[in-house]
Amino acid sequence: MVAAFPLSWFKDSIEHHMSAKIGSPVRIGMLAREEIFSFRPVVHVTDVTVAQPGWAGAGTMASARLVRIRLYPLSLLIGRVDADLLSATGVKLDLIRNAEGRENWRKPDDSDGRSSRGMSIAQVSDATLRYRDAIQKRSLLLAITIDPATGLTARGSGTIDGAPVTVALKGAPMTQGRRWPFEARIDGSALRLRARGTMAGPLRTNDMAFSLRAQADDLKRVDRIIEAGLFGTRDVDLRAEVLHRDDRWTIKTLWGTIGQSVLDGHLTATKADGRTKLDGAVHFSRLDFEDLASDSGNARAQALERAQGLRLVPNTRVNIAKIDKTDGRIAVRVDQVLGGRRPSSIANITGVLTLDNRILTIDPLRIGLTKGVIVGNATVDQRAGQKKPTVRLSLDLQDSRIAALAGGGSRDIDGRVDASVRLTGVGDTIREAVGMSDGHIGMAARSGPLPEKVAALMGFDIGKGLLGDHDGRSQLRCAVLRLDMRHGQGIVDRLIADTAISQTRGGGNIAFPDERLDIRLTGAPKGKAALRYDGTISLAGTIREPRILIPKKAKSPGTIIKAIGRAIAGDHGPKAIDADCTALFRRVMPMPGP
C-alpha cells in the first residue's frame, strides 16, 4: 500500500512541514508519481512557491515550475520529508539580507550559520538567483544551470559596494563520493577575485581547499566578499592558500601587497560556542602606515591635520565594541617602516596582539627607532560593552637622541633622550583617550652638544645670544620634564634645562588632546651675562608647533636701557648653579638615572 498510495494525500502535510522548516508559507500546485508502484518513487512537484517573510516585503522568495525529487514515503508517516533533489526547471530565488542582519533563507532561531554540507542535484535549467545584501552592499543577478555532463555553471553581474562586477562560477559534474573541483571569478574595474580548488563533494562548502587571489582598490571591498571584518586600505593584491573544515578556516599562507607595503602571514579561525578564535602571524617586510587607510580615510586625516595642525599623539581608532565574539592571538612584525608624507623616526615594529572578550592587549610591544627603542604594552578594555573603551598605555623610550627624534637633520643640538608614559583614559581614539587620561609623562635628555648662543639664550643672556661667537659650542648637561596628568591636563611638576653656562626653569601645563602649551619660562646664566633679561617668557602654541611669546614690556626702550645699565654696573643678578641631574632623572622617570 505504501508503495502505491496517492501522494496528493500528503500535499497539505508537506506544505505545512516545509513552511515550518523554512519559516515562510510554502505552496505546491500538484504532486504526481512517475511510477505507479515504487517504495522510492520519483515525484513531480509543480508550481512550488515560497513567500517572502513579512519583514522582507511582498513577493516570492523562491519558486519553481517543476521539481523532480526521489521521495522516501516512510518518512512522511513520522512527520518528516526525506528526499533527494533530482532536477528542477524554472527556478527563481530572491535572497535578501537586510541592514539588521536578517536573512530570508534562514529562520531567526537558526543562528549557527554553518556552511553547506552539500547536496546532489542531477540537473537544473532556466534558473535565476537574485541576491541583495544591505550589510555588505552586494547586489547580484545570476543565471544558473546544472548539467549531468558539464556540471554547474553560473554567470551574472551586479555591484559590490557600488562598483560594477561580473560573476562566473564553474563546477564539475555533481557526482557524490569524490572531490568536486570548482572555480569562481569576480571581475570589475575596482575588484578582481579568483578562487580555484575542490570541495569534499558537490557544494560541500564545509570541507574545501582552494587558492585565492584578490585585487582591489581597497581591502574593505574584498571584505564585502569574504566578511572577515577587514578595514579600508589603499589598493591591494593578495594571494592565499585556504582550507575550510567544518568550524575551522585556515589560511596556510598569505602574501601580497597593500599599496607599497609588502606582507605575508598565516591565520587560523576556529568557531566554538558562538565565538571565533584567531591564531596567526602577520609580517611586513616594509610598511607605510598610510597604506592601512583608504584614500578617503587619508583625505579625512589630512583635512583634520589642516584644521587642527600637527599633533604628536596619533588619532588611531581603538574602539572594539563591534568585535564582541572574537578572541585570539596575532603576532605582528614590521621590518621597515616607510616615511610616507613626512620623515619618521620609527624604523621597525614587533608586537603580540591578544584579544579576549573585548580586551585587546599589545604585549610585548617594541618600536624600533632610527636611534633608540620604545618598549612596553598597551591595553584597550571594552569588556563591559561600554560605548567607549578604557585605554592604558605603559611605554618607555630608551636610549634615543634629540637629533633622531627631530627627524635626523642637524646635530647642532643633540643628546641622549629617555622617556616614560603611564596613562589611563577613555576614548574612541588614542588621542581622545590621552585627552581624558590620568597618570604621568616623564622625559629626560642628557650629555649632548648645543651652540653657545642657544645656551646663552636659555640663560636669558640676550647679549651673548645675539652677539656671541657664531661657532662657539657649549654642552647640555641635562633637561627634564614631568607632567602629572589629570583628566587630560598635564600639570608641569618639573621642567629644567641645564647647560654648561646657563639654566632654564618652567611651570604651567600642557592641555591634551589639543597639545596646547601654557608654559612660563625663567632663565639664569652661570657666569657673567653680557646683557641679561630679568623676567619671564611664555611658551604657547602646540607641542609640534610651539611659539615663544616675549612680553611687550620686555621690548620697551626702558627695559633695554635698564638691562644695559645693570650690565655696565656689573649687576648680573643671581647666578644658576649646576643641577643635580641624577636626582632629576629619578624624579621624572620610573627608572634610575645614570
Write the layout of secondary structure elements.
Layout: H1 11-22, E1 26-27, E2 30-33, E3 42-51, E4 60-71, E5 83-97, E6 123-133, E7 138-147, E8 151-160, E9 163-171, E10 180-187, E11 191-199, E12 207-216, H2 219-226, E13 236-245, E14 248-258, E15 261-272, E16 275-286, H3 295-308, E17 326-334, E18 346-355, E19 359-369, E20 373-381, E21 390-401, H4 402-405, E22 416-426, H5 430-434, E23 438-451, H6 452-458, H7 462-467, E24 473-486, E25 489-499, E26 502-511, E27 516-525, E28 537-541, E29 546-549, H8 557-569, H9 581-588
Parallel strand pairs: 5-6, 16-17
Antiparallel strand pairs: 1-3, 2-3, 3-4, 4-5, 6-7, 7-8, 8-9, 9-10, 10-11, 11-12, 12-13, 13-14, 14-15, 15-16, 17-18, 18-19, 19-20, 20-21, 21-22, 22-23, 23-24, 24-25, 25-26, 26-27, 27-28, 28-29
Helix content: 10-25%
Extract low-pLDDT stretches: none
Annotation, overall tally of beta strands: 29
**Alpha carbon gap, first and last residue:** 99 Å
Summarize the main sheet.
29 strands, mixed
The proportion of residues in beta strands is over 45%
- Given the helix and strand composition, which structural class is it? mainly beta
Number of helices: 9
Global Rg? 35 Å
Shape field: elongated
Structure description:
With 594 residues, the protein is mainly beta. Helices cover 13% and strands 48% of the residues. The protein has a 29-stranded mixed β-sheet that branches. A hairpin with an 8-residue loop joins strand 2 (30-33) and strand 3 (42-51). The termini are far apart.
